Amino acid sequence: MRGLDLDYMAGLVPVILGYVPKTMAMASVAMVLALALGALLAIVRVLKLPVIDQFVAVFISFFRGTPLLVQLFLFYYGLPQLLPTLSKIDGVTAAIIGLTLHFAAYMAESIRAAILGVDRSQWEAAESIGMTRAQMLRRIILPQAARIAAPTLMNYYIDIIKSTSLAFTLGVTEMMGAAQKEAAGSFLYLEAFLVVAVIYWLLVEALSFVQRALERNMQKAFAR
Prior knowledge:
The chain has helices at about 5-15, 20-45, 50-65, 70-80, 90-115, 120-130, 135-165, 175-185, 190-220. It is an all-alpha fold. It has one domain: MetI-like (MetI-like fold, Orthogonal Bundle), CATH 1.10.3720. It is flat, with a radius of gyration of 21 Å.
């Protein structure tokens, strides 16, 4: 049994680290878009808008009930057969769209639960002074719901970062894609995948540290 090629692993670290900005950029764009779409879907569900609410329920059910990899393949390889225009979309854009739709479905349910978690007296107080539902949501309910949902949304951001590793199946060279290429050239698969796994782990640990610090600050800000 041979041991790990530590020199190869040490040389691979800067190569993989060079793709961290690309991975983080993809995850950040997908997070912003998913958050905006998820909030919109959550509001539709809370207000129970006729017809639209039923479409949103089906959308959420589909994207929560099917694997992300299947959704990426459907969007990137399948839909261009039906809509040839989609064949012009590159792998990075397709991965961001797939991540956005998938995580928006999960965020919508979390944000909806957070909105409904705001004390009923807040809704009644806003109604009593004649606020419209839009004013009520914007000024009273959503700011409080954001504080409730923040920890869960941060967890989704971490999940999006890890899920970007699937983008290599669409031909995108990000951290996982780079490790795959290096391993295919050297046949040192264990070393290559071990390096990328450790880098993902350290990224998640760093973000978890930031998340805990933000939660402590939020608790202090709202402590009585």
